[in-house]
Design brief:
The structure holds two protein chains of two kinds. Chain A is built from eleven helices and no strands. By secondary structure, chain A is mostly helical. Classes of the chains: A mainly alpha, B mainly alpha.
Chain lengths: 205, 329
């Protein structure tokens, strides 16, 4: 009975998942549903086997998934292993980084493929102070702007965003609105001394 | 703020959408242009912030999918639930089977104990009837003999004398047979009880933990297997003396190993009553042996059943081993 029920759910190949991520919108969400349901237990199993907890595994998964998706969406992304293996490795590395266990044995993969991702995630996420600053600055934006930017980052096309936000002017209005919102956010960041300090540090290496 | 085209170019660069030649050009410009570098970093941070915002949308989906994965009867479970669901079903089935097996074993054991008890009762009844028959026959012969003896007073009848002699011999034989039967049971039982008890380390009890010279001497005597000496010393302590608390602990064992089983029985009962939390099991085990040694089959069977009801009982093995001796009685 389970088997027949299972067969009803949509199945994705690795390439289809990548394409769905790139398409964004509902296709992306469906691909994530498949990926999450198929990969979650493997992620948890891997981290629990290495001494982590189920909650830590899920927390790391939540922290890593967006960076993973962004990485996979890039046109220059080349899949060197199964996508699930890459995902599990990425989440594991985020967890290991959080646990400050850099010397731990790395599962399955030890390649530039994952290392690049880890560097990116470390820069993106591990700096919790920076994350807090970004969140605080985002809070200054109105709900409308936040919705537009969220839809944009979730891969919805400008046409879909226009429909979702009821922009009568259609796609072009959505594009303009998105630009205004992102520029407003960037202006807040420009004015934030801590952010400027962070950029200065980046510049100085 | 950078111009519109530059803004779009940087955004494409950050999203990895620039072609390699454009990307290399931009990176070269960034390296020498501090203002451009700052703009790129601001846009990078802005995208990071928006990405965090967008990620929060997915958390709700993760929670929803978690519930679907962890609920096997979900209307449209994902492929992954095949494994999770199967594990759940297997675990439940295994648990049910274990419970069922446990219940069958439990009821089987109860039935077995009842059957054993019934068989033991029948066996005891058979043996009792033999002894009763022997006793009756013995009594009858005794009466016949007594009658004949009265008659011999009346005359010196050689036929009667011969008959008396024959009856006396027969009586002696019957008496011997009955005593042998009873003695065999008692001797065997005492031996059995002592053999089982020797397997326990209770014949030495370490340091009794008292500075009192009498108690220390009694303890020393006990540990050196001088049980009668230990009993004598313990008995020298007055009944209302506070040291009786330790006497109660040591006396039953001393009596038991001195093979004074009849006296050991009330001593163990007292120990059980005084210290039910720590001594109940010990008292039960030794009472079983005392009853066996004393030939108190009914009490021994009852105690054996009490012990067998608790598979974790310290003397469960004794109770099991006692089955054979109780059957033979």
């Amino acid at each position: 009975m389970l088997k027949s029920l299972l067969s009803m759910s949509q199945s994705f190949t690795d390439q289809q998942i990548i394409e769905s991520f790139r398409s964004g919108g509902l296709a992306r969400e469906k691909a994530w549903e498949f990926a999450y349901k198929n990969w979650r237990d493997r992620v948890i199993g891997t981290i629990v086997n290495k001494g982590g907890t189920r909650d830590e595994a899920k927390e790391s998964l939540q922290e890593a998934f967006m960076a993973f998706e962004q990485r996979v969406r890039r046109p220059d992304f080349v899949l060197q292993h199964r996508l699930s293996t890459y995902f599990v490795s990425c989440v594991y590395r985020v967890w290991a980084k959080k646990k400050k266990e850099r010397k731990m044995e790395i599962i399955e993969l030890e390649s530039k493929h994952v290392s690049d991702f880890v560097e990116s995630v470390e820069m993106d996420i591990a700096q919790t102070d920076l994350a807090r600053l970004l969140d605080e600055t985002l809070a200054l934006l109105g709900e409308r702007c936040k919705s537009i930017l969220r839809h944009f980052m979730n891969g919805f096309s400008m046409k879909e965003i226009a429909e979702k936000m009821d922009f009568s002017g259609g796609e072009q209005v959505a594009r303009n609105e998105k630009r205004k919102c992102i520029e407003r956010y960037e202006n807040y960041l420009h004015e934030h001394p801590d952010i400027l300090q962070h950029i200065q540090n980046q510049r100085n290496g | 703020m950078a111009d519109k085209n530059l803004h779009d170019t940087i955004e494409k660069y950050l999203l990895g959408e620039l072609i390699p030649s454009e990307r290399e050009q931009l990176e070269a410009d960034i390296a020498i242009d501090a203002k451009l570098f700052k703009q790129v970093e601001i846009q990078r941070l802005a995208l990071l912030g928006i990405r965090r915002l967008a990620a929060a949308d997915m958390y709700g989906n993760f929670d929803k999918w978690d519930k679907e994965i962890d609920t096997p009867s979900s209307p449209s479970p994902p492929a992954e639930t095949k494994t999770t669901g199967k594990v759940w079903i297997w675990a439940s089935t295994t648990l049910l089977l274990l419970l069922l097996a446990g219940a069958i074993w439990h009821f089987g054991e109860i039935k077995k104990i009842k059957n054993t008890q019934q068989q033991e009762n029948q066996e005891i009844a058979r043996r009792d009837s033999i002894i009763m028959a022997l006793r009756a026959e013995f009594q009858q012969k005794e009466e016949e003999l007594s009658d004949l003896l009265k008659r011999t007073e009346l005359g010196k009848d050689s036929t009667l004398n011969a008959e008396i002699k024959r009856l006396r011999e027969e009586l002696d034989q019957k008496d011997k047979a009955m005593r042998a039967l009873e003695s065999r049971n008692t001797q065997g039982s005492r031996q059995f009880a002592m053999q089982l008890a020797q397997k326990s380390n209770m014949s030495t009890r370490g340091d009794i933990g008292s500075d009192d010279p009498t108690l220390a001497a009694a303890n020393k005597a006990y540990n050196n297997s001088k049980f009668e000496e230990a009993i004598r010393l313990l008995n020298s302590i007055p009944k209302n003396d506070p040291r009786q608390a330790q006497v109660v602990q040591l006396m039953p064992y001393a009596l038991f190993y001195a093979q004074r089983f009849q006296q050991a029985i009330p001593a163990f009962m007292n120990l059980w009553e005084q210290d039910p939390d720590f001594e109940a099991m010990n008292a039960q085990g030794y009472l079983l042996l005392c009853y066996i040694a004393e030939g108190k089959s009914l009490e021994a069977r009852q105690m054996r059943l009490t012990i067998l009801q608790n598979p974790k009982h310290k003397y469960y093995k004794w109770a099991n081993e006692a089955t054979s001796i109780l059957k033979s009685k």
